[in-house]
Amino acid sequence: MTAARIYLVRHGETEANRREIVQGQLDTHLNESGIEQAALVSEALQKISFDEGYSSDLSRASKTAEMILECHPRVQLRKQSGLRERHLGSLQGQTHARKRAFGSINSDPTAEKADAFVTRSLSWWENSVRRHIETLPERAMPYHILVVSHGGFISTLIKNLLAKKRIAKVVSVDDWRCYNCSVSIIDIRKDGKAELVQYSDISHLGNSKVVESNADTEDK
To answer: Which residues participate directly in catalysis (predicted)?
Structure first.
């Protein structure tokens, strides 16, 4: 039986997204389109009875989470630095084209190493989700947990959970891009076994255009 359903939401659009500028851990803010997207995902999740809410402590993620939780006033938002995007060193503030031309991010001594980023994302899952679920009182209905983070973090977390067989994939994923205000869902049981049941869904955004490139996504 599913003990908890985890809703992983990417933050809304920023001007850096629109202009294809690498953000990493720069503290950028939602633009007008990002606010609109956050309102749409909030509406889509309005009827979910969230029990807990987490977000990256960067403004674009925490603002998105705050807008979603306006419909869930009893849920206290917990902002965590562990949910931040990968720090991309000297490339932060540069263009996506410059990032592509740069080569391996690992060659930049000021950037967070890929293996360190993977370790951080998996540690967050282990401590804030898997072990936490074990401590929750059993009940007939699953707990619903909101997590708002970043494109690189969400895609890296899910791909590595799958690679390490910590979760199973029950939904086909052909495109690993994680769109602004997309919703990915993982169901987890009390024993820690989990399944990816939805990835980067943006059907709730309707005709709203999303930025298809993810300047701050890097999982190599």
So the answer is: 11, 85
Set 29, 52, 70, 85: catalytic member: 85
Average pLDDT of each block of 10 consecutive residues along the chain (220 residues)? 97 95 96 97 97 98 98 97 97 91 89 97 97 94 98 97 95 92 96 95 87 51
Is residue 85 part of the annotated active site? The answer reads yes
Can you read off the two tokens belonging to residue 199?
Answer: 């990835």
Distance between CA 101 and CA 98 in Å, rounded? Answer: 5
Q: Which of 195, 157, 204 is nearest to 4 (CA)?
A: 195
| Residue 134 annotated as part of some ligand binding site | no
The CATH number corresponding to 2-205 among 3.40.50.1170, 3.40.50.1240, 3.40.190.170, 3.30.1050.10 equals 3.40.50.1240
